Amino acid sequence: MSERWFFALWPDDAVRAALASRLPELLPVGARATHPSDFHLTLAFLGPLAPDVLGCAERAADRIRAAGFDLEIDRVGHFARAHVLWCAPATPPEALPALVRDLQAQLSICGLAADPRPYRPHITLARKAAAMPASDWSTPMRWSVRELVLAAGYGGPGPRYRVRRRWALI
């Protein structure tokens, strides 16, 4: 299977542990939990890339000049069609969609088009989730976002994603 590239926000160890600790109370019967090492919030999905386009995407990220920001993860939801259980900020700070817009503008130089669907920031907690969880997100969780990453998905059992490169948000 070829690598599927994407830019994302990658939680630190403390945020990953906090997410993982909440999963047991949220996980519907039959759902497949995301491996804690794979928790991330996608900014731009790129798919399989030729080496020259991958290099261009890295140079695009080199040009990003965005400040770090805080996310408050305070909502849990379910994409019924995709059978995905997720968590997200109910009200994302303006810095998040601004970062996505800036990244998309830089990636367009590489010929990589932005996803035409509205951006819906979320962290996938589980797949094959046929229903909403019985429990709700009990206490908001703060995540201090300080970096952007380029990662690739490889399929197979978790962890399924590997970070190739990181960029500090200033």
Automatic annotation (TrEMBL):
Belongs to the 2H phosphoesterase superfamily. ThpR family. The keyword Ligase applies. A motif (HXTX 1) lies at residues 40-43. A motif (HXTX 2) lies at residues 122-125. Hydrolyzes RNA 2',3'-cyclic phosphodiester to an RNA 2'-phosphomonoester. Gene3D superfamilies: Cyclic phosphodiesterase. It catalyses: a 3'-end 2',3'-cyclophospho-ribonucleotide-RNA + H2O = a 3'-end 2'-phospho-ribonucleotide-RNA + H(+). InterPro entries: Cyclic_Pdiesterase, RNA_CPDase. The active site is at H40, H122. This is RNA 2',3'-cyclic phosphodiesterase. It is an enzyme of class 3 (hydrolase). Its EC number is 3.1.4.58. One of its GO terms (molecular function) is ligase activity.
